[in-house]
Amino acid sequence: MQQVKYYIILSLLLGAFFSCTRDFLEKPPSVDITEDTIFSKIRNAETFLYDVYSNSMPSGLPTGWSNSTSGGIVAGVLAAACDEGDIADSWPGANRFNEGQWDANDNPEDDFSTHYKAIRKANIFMERIDGVPDASGEYKTQLKAEARFLRALQYFELVKRYGGVPIVDRRLLNSDNLKLPRNKLEDCINFIVSDCDAALGALPAAQEGFLRGRISKGAVLALKSRVLLYAASPLFNSATAYVATTDATATLVGYHNYDAARWQKAADAAKAVLDWAPTGSCRLITEFGVDNNYEYVWSQPDNAEIILANKSNGRWGIYGDYFNFTMPVNIYGGWYGISVPMNFVKLYEKKTGGAQIWPQSGDNANAMYASLDPRFAQSVGYNGASWNSEIGAVQMYIKPDGKPALHGGDRGGGQWMHKFLPRSVTWSTYGATINWPVFRLAEFYLNYAEALNEAQGPVAEVYTAVNTIRARSGMPALSGKSKEEMRMAIRNERAIELAFEEHRYWDVRRWKIAGDEGVMNGKMYGLRLKPIDGSSEFHFEQVVFEQRVWNDKMYLYPFPNTEIYKQYIVQNPGW
Amino acid sequence: MNCIYKLRTTALLTVTGTLFSLAALAQSATDTVPATADTTLQVPVAYGEQPWWKVTGAYGRVNGSVLRKSAAATLSNGLYGRIPGLTVMQGNGEPGYDAPSMAIRGLSSYRGAGLLIFVDGFESPFDQLAADEIETITVLKDAAATAMYGIRGANGVLLVTTKRGFSGKPKISFRAQTGFQRPQRLPEFLGSYDYATLYNEALRNEGKTDKYSPADLEAYKNGNDKYFHPDVNWYDEVLKKSAPMSEYNLNLSGGNSNATYFVSLNVLKNTGLYKNTDSKREENSNANFLRYNFRSNVDIKVTKRLSTSLDLAGRVEDRSYPGAGAPEIWGNMMLIPPNAFPVRNPDNSYGGTSVYRGNPVGLVLGRGVATTHARALQATMRFSYSLDQVTPGLKAGAAVSFNNWFQGNDDKTKQFAVFQLLKDPAGDTIYNKFGDNTSIAQNDGVNDQWRRTNTQFTLTYNRTFGEHSIDALALYQQDVYTISGNNVPYAHQGTAGRVTYAYKRKYIGEFSFGYNGSENFPKGRRFGFFPAVSAGWILSEEQFLQQAQWISFLKLRASYGQVGNDQVGGRRFPYKQYYNGGAGYYFGTDNRYAGGMDEGSLANPDITWEKDRRANIGIDASLLRNRVTLAFDFFDEKRKDILAERYGAIPGYIGVGLPAENVGSVRNRGFELQLGYQSEVKRSFSYFASASAAFARNKILYMAEAQQPYTYLNRTGQSIGQPFGLQAIGFFKDEADISASPQQIFAPVKPGDIKYKDQNGDNIIDIYDEVAIGKPLLPEWTFGLHLGVQYKGFDLDAFFQGVANRSVMLSGPLVWAFVNDAKAAPIAMGRWTPETAATATYPRLTTAANDNNYRSSDFWQRNGSFVKLRNIELGYTFPTSLLSRIRMQQLRVYVNAVNVFSLDHIHFADPETLSGYPAMRSVNAGIRVQL
Predict the structure, then answer these.
(1) Which residues of chain A make contact with B662, given a CB cutoff of 8 A?
(2) pLDDT per residue over B842-854, tens digit each?
(3) Deepest of B3, B327, B495, B885, by most Cβ within 10 A of its Cβ?
C-alpha cells in the first residue's frame, strides 16, 4: 500500500509537468514589428516610405568614408573627379579616378547593391500599400506613385553608371531563382520612362510647406527629361559601343543604333518641365541682381528654383565630414579643399561674352579674374576674393620666400571651389543647412536647348532657352550660331551654370568627350600667383599640376567583382 | 595528474568526499586515475556519477582544495592552466567584475561559443561561489562526455560539484585569510618635459608652430611650478599602493545513516585601489565588493526506498564604486597628459580644461557613490525512489531547481566642475570653469534579474551480473530561463540516456544520447538527436601485462559521436522576419525629421543548430607503483551547419540583409598531455611535479565567404579570430622614397610614416593588401606546471601557467601618442626623425589622428605568449600529536602569493589586460583549523 502511495505522488508530479509542456518551446506573443504591423496602419506605412526616400535620394555632399553611403565619392565630391575640380591631396577617392587607379575590386564612387536596397523597399511598398485599411484610395495611389518615382530614380542612378542592369520590379526571395541577367539598355530606359508616366497622374503639381521635399509632378517630369536626354546622347544613342565589343554586350551598354528621334523626345520631355513650372510655383531666381541670383540658388536651401532637393542630413556641422572633405585648407574644418583647374576656369566667358584667353603668364591676375562671367565669383574662391566676412580675402599665392600663403597657392588648380560652401558658415553659426539640388529648373532650359538643337538645329526656342539662363546672370545673349557652334555653346553654358552639381562628370561621359585632352585625360593646368612689388596685382603663371589618365572603358563603371564572381552578370567591355 | 599520494592520506579520500586533507596538497589538476584501488570511487559525469574506471570519455578535473590556493575573489580566476583543455583568459581586475573568459578545446565555431555551466546538475553561473564549498570542477570535452546535453553540448560543459555531508563524526573547519593586492602591471607614460618636447616636434612635423616655449620646457624640467607647469602621474594620484582583501570560511559537515549535511558560510571582502575615499561611503567610495555565500546541502533517507535532498545555496553581493565607472576613470588616467592641468588648483578645486573635463581624482572623489546589491538563490530538491521491487538496481528520481538572481542599485551621484588656471594680461590668475558642481542625485530605479526553473525526471539502473555490469540512465528535463529586458524566455526541453556495459573490469562500452530541443527554432524543426559511442580497454588487467610490474594501470579510450549547439549567434528566432527602425528623412521648408522603418534581414524558416562530429582517443596510465602518471587525449572535431549569410553567392540586387543559413564548417584538432611524478616519502621528505600541455588549432573550412580578388585575403582556411592587417616594411625615408613607393591611400604620407608592403603589386596600398598577421587572441597552446615539496609539516606548492601561439594588437592611448588628445608612452621616444631615421622604432609624430600609421598592421602587433607564476604557497601543518591534546584535528598556517610574475613580450602592460582596471597580484596569509 505504502508503495502505491508513492506511485500516485510520482505520477501526479509527472502529470503536472507534462500537462503544460505541449507548446513548451513555442514563442509567446510579444511586441515584435512585422511587415503586417507596418502595413496595418497608414502612419506606419508612411514611415516605411520615408525610409525609401532616405535610401533613394541622390546627394553630392559626401557623408562618409564608404562608397555605400550616399553622396559624393570617398572623402570628396564628384566634381573633383572631372575637369571641374581636383582634390588637393593624394589619397581621397577622387584622385584615384584622376590617376586611373580604380577598378572592379574597388570603385570609390559607388556601391552597386546599395541601389537595390532602395529599389526593394519601393517594390515592397508598392506591393503592400493597397492593403492598408485606414487611408483613402486616392492617398494610397499618391504614395504608391512616390515609391514608383523613387524606384525609377534609383534605376537612373544605376543606368548612368553601368548601362543596362537587371530590372527587379518585385520583391525577391533568397529562395527564388536569382540568376537574373542584365536587361538591355533600351529596356531600362523604357522601364524608367514608363514608371515616370505611371507615377505622374497621381501626384500633385507642387509640394509646399511641411510637404516640401515630397515628390511632385515636377520631379517626375524632370527625371523623365534627364533620362531621355541621356538616352539621346552619343554614349548610348550610337550604332557602335564606346569600346569594341560583341553585339550582345553592345545592347547592354547602348542602343546599338542611332535614332535622331530620341533627341526630339528629349526636347519634348524638357519642354514639359518648363511648361509645368508655373503650375508648381517653380521659377528661376532673378530678383537679387546678376551678381547674386546665382549664389542665392545654391546657398539658400530648397528655394523656388529647386524642383526636388535631397533633404536628408538636415544641418551640417563645421567639423562634419562634408566640410572636412571640401573646405579649403585653413578655412574652418577643411582638410584640403577642392581646387578648380584652369581647364575649367577657361570655360568662363568674359563678362562681355566670348571666350577669355588666358596667356601662359601675365601680371594681371586680379584683372583676369574680374573680367569673367559673374557666375565665376559666385562659384569659385580665388585669390583676393572674399570667402566670407569672417575669413576675409582668400590668400592663394606663393610668398616671396617660396612658401604658400595661408590658403594655399601651390596646390592643384590655384583657386578653390566655393559653391555649396555658403558664406553663412562661420565659427558662430558653426555649420549650415544645405540641401543638395536633385533637380533645379535651370537644368531643363539647357536640356531643352541641347535636345532641340540636335533635333531641329538652332531654332528660335533654342536661343530663348539658353539666353534666359545667361540673362539671369548678366551674360549677353547668344546669336547667329550654326548647329555645331550652338552645340558647343550649350555645352559650355551647361558647364558653367551647373558647375559642381554633379552634371559635368556625367555630361563629359554622355558626350563622349571625357577622353579629350584636358578633360579627363592629359594635362591639367593650375595657376601660380606671386605678388608684384609695389602693386596690388599678382603675376600669374600656368603650370601643369597633374597628368590625368583615361581609358575609354571608363565611360561606364565595371560591375564589382564581388557580383561578377557570382556568375550571373556580364561585365562591361574592357574591364 | 596526480594521482599518487601517500597511503596515510589516500585513506581520507572517500566517496562522500573528504573535506580537508593534506593529500589535496599533493594532488594536481585532475583525477583521470586516482591512486586508489577503490573501484567504487565515483566521479561526476553528465547528469550523474560513474566509477572512475568506467569512464570512457574525455574529462578534466580539478579539486576545490587546489582552487583555494589561488586566493582569487572570483572562483574562475583560480582555473588558469589548471585543467588541460580549458583555456581561461584573464579579464580586468575590478573587484566584483573580474571574471575571466573561458573556452574548452579552443573554438569550433565562428559564431556562438559560450560554454554550458552546471552547478550540482543545474545550469548556473559559478564565478561567485567560494572555493571552500567546491568539491570538484569537471570539464566535459568529447562526444561521449557531452552527448547527453545534445543540442547544447558542442562547446563543452563545465560541471561544478559542491561538497556534501557524510556519515560520521562531525567536522568543523574554519579558515581565515587576509592579504594585500596591487596591480600586476600598470602602463607607463612620459612625464611633462618629454611629453611637451615630443608634442612640439609633432606640431613641427605638421608644419605648425610650437605650443611649448623654451621657458615652458625649462619649467617642466625644473618641476617647480606645479600649477602652471604640472607633471602629474595620474596613477600615483588616484591609486593606493595596495588594497586589502580578506576571506573567512566556516564549514560544518557530518551526519548519520539517515541524514547527512554540509553547511557553509563564506564572507569575502575585496577592496579596490582608489585613494582617499570615504570609508563611510557618503561622499564617495572606493571600489568595494562584499560577498556572503551560504550553503546547506542536506541528504535525507526518508524510508528504506525513498531518499531526498535539499540544497539551498544563497549569496548576497554588495558592490560599491565611485559614481564614475571604471572605464571612465581608467580611460582618463590613460589619456590625460601629465601637464594638462594640476590635480587641484590653489583654491582646492579640481583642475581641468575644456578638452579634459574628466579629472581622474575628481571622477573618484567628486562623482558620488554607486552601489549595487545582488542576491542569488539556487534551491534544488531531489527525490530518489528505489524500485528494487520491480527489478533490483532500478531507481526513479525527480528533481526541481529554482535559480534566481536579482540586483538593485542605489546611486547617489553628482557632477563636478573643473577649473582651468590661466593668467590674464596683468599676470593675475583667473579660473576658467567647465561643467558644474551639482548636488547629489539619487537613483534606485535600475534593477536587473534573471531566473531559471528546471525540472528533471530520471530512471537509473545499476546492476552487476557476475562479470557483467550494466549502468543505465534515462532522463527527461526542461528548463526556462528568463532575463529581464528580454521579453521572450529561453527554453529547452528533451530527453537523454546513457548505457554503460563493463565486462570483467577490462572492457567497457558505452552508448549515450541526447534528444532535445530549443525555442530558437521553428515548430517541427526544434528537436535533434545526438548519439555517441565510446569504449575503454583496461590493458593492465589483461593477463599479458600482469607480469609488467612497472605498469600499475593502463587504459585506452576512444569515443565518437555528435553534439549540437543551439546558440547559433545572430538574432533570436531567425525563422521569423522583423522590421526595425530605419534611417528616416527630413521634410518641409524647415527640414523636419520624420522617422523611418526598415525591413530587417530575411528569415530562414529552415534554420537549425550547429552539429559537431567529434572523435577522441585517450590513454590513462599509472606507472612504477603509481609514481608516474600519464594521460593523453587526442581529438578531432568537425563542426558543421554553422550559420553564415551567403553574400558571396546571392546577387546584390536582392537588396536586403540575407538570412543566416546553416552552411559553415570548422575543423578543430588538438591534444592534451599530462605527466606527473610523485616521490616516495623518505625521511619525512617528498615532492611532486606535474606538467600539462594542451594544444588546439582550428581552421575555417567554409563560411560562405565572398570570393576575394586575392586569395591571401580569404578568412576561409584560417583560424577563427585570425588577425588581418598590413605588413609594415619600415618608414618612408624621404619624399623621393614616397614618390617611388606605392601610393598609400589611408591618409597623406610624409617621411617617417609607416611604409607598407604592396601584396598584390597594384601600386596602391589599401585594404586589399591586408594579410593574415600573427595568431588569434585565444592561445593555441596552454601549459601548466605544478611543483610541490613537503618536509615534515612544511609544504611548498607552486603553479605556473603559460600560453603560446597568441598575438595581441596594441592600440589606443597605450601606444599611440597624442591621438585623440592622448599622452605619450615611452615607446614614442623611439620616433622617426630625419636624424634618427636609421634607428627609429616608432613612426613620425603627429598631433592629429594619422590613419596611415595608426591602423591594424604587424607594426602594432606583439607576441602575446607569456609564462606566469600564478600561485605559490608555503604552509605549515602542526603535528597531530600536538593537536590531539587540544582536541583539534588539524591546524595549518600558510602564506601565498598570486600572479607573482609574468614573463612576456609586452613589458609595459599586462599581456592579458592591456587597458582598464588591471589584473591584481596579491600576497595573503591564512590559517585553517579543523575540529
Answers:
(1) none
(2) 999 998 878 899 9
(3) B3
- Cell numbers for B525: 524543426
Q: State the Cα–Cα distance between residues B281 and B367, nearest whole angstrom.
A: 12
Task: For residue B517, give the chain A residue with the closest CA.
Answer: A25
Cell 537574373 locates to A180
d(CA A520, CA A80): 11
SS3 letters across A289-305? CCCCHHHHHHHCCCCCC
Instruction: For residue B592, count other CB atoms closer than 10 A to its CB.
Output: 14
Q: What is the pTM of this model?
A: 0.83
CB contact under 8 A, A210 and B592: yes
Residue type, A529: L
CB A369 within 8 A of CB A386: no
Amino acid, res. A515: G
Residues within 8 A of B (CB atoms), A 130-189 only: 165-166, 168, 172-174, 178-180
Question: Which A residues, 191 through 250, put their C-beta within 8 Å of a C-beta on chain B?
Answer: 208-214
The beta strand positions in B524-650, using DSSP E, are: 527-538, 551-565, 579-581, 585-587, 592-594, 597-599, 610-623, 628-645
Alpha-carbon span B12 to B18, nearest angstrom: 6
Count CB neighbours of B874 within 10 A. Answer: 14
Element (H, E) at A153: helix A137-162
Interface mutation target, options A34, A143, A174, A407, chain B, most CBs of B under 10 Å: A174
Residues of chain A with Cβ-Cβ distance to B591 below 8 Å are 301, 311, 314-315, 433, 435
Calpha distance A72→B55 (Å, rounded): 66
Q: Is residue B745 pLDDT above 90, yes or no?
A: no
- How many angstroms away from the CA of A275 is the closest CA of chain B? 24
- Residue showing cell 526506498: B305
If you average pLDDT over residues B495-512, what whole number do you get?
96
Question: Cell 577522441 identifies what position?
Answer: B616
Q: Which of B521, B525, B566, B745 to substitute to test the interface with A, most A CBs within 10 Å?
A: B745
Average pLDDT value for residue range A480-491 = 97
Inter-residue contact B664 to B643 (CB < 8 Å): yes
B429 forms beta bridges with: B423
CB-based contact (8 Å) between A26 and chain B?
A: yes
The dihedral formed by the CA atoms of A464, A466, A467 and A468, expressed in degrees to the nearest 10: 80
Reduced to 3 states, what is the DSSP secondary structure of residue A198? helix
CA of B452 vs chain A CAs: smallest distance (Å): 14
Contact (CB, 8 A) for B245 and B924:
yes
Instruction: Find, in chain B, the residue whose alpha carbon is nearest to that of A303.
Output: B589
pLDDT at B665: 96
What average pLDDT does range A434-447 have in this prediction? 96
ipTM of the complex: 0.90
pLDDT of residue A5 exceeding 70: no
Question: How close A544 comes to chain B (CA, Å)?
Answer: 18
Q: What are phi and psi of B618, to 5 degrees?
A: -140, 155
> Nearest Cα to A388, choosing from A416, A358, A412, A364?
A416
Among residues B269, B229, B263, B217, which one has the least CA distance to residue B248? B269
pLDDT reported for residue B38: 64
Whether the CB of B586 is below 8 Å from some CB of chain A: the reply is yes
Interface of B with A in 844-863 (CB under 8 A): none
CA nearest B704 in A: which residue? A566
Residue B245 and residue B663: Cα distance in Å, rounded? 50
Query: B309 phi and psi, to 5 degrees?
Result: -145, 150
Contacts of A561 in chain B (CB under 8 A): 707, 709
Mutation to test the B interface, candidates A23, A25, A52, A87, most B Cβ within 10 Å: A25
Query: How far is CA B558 from its chain centroid?
Result: 30
Residue A11 has pLDDT above 80, yes or no: no
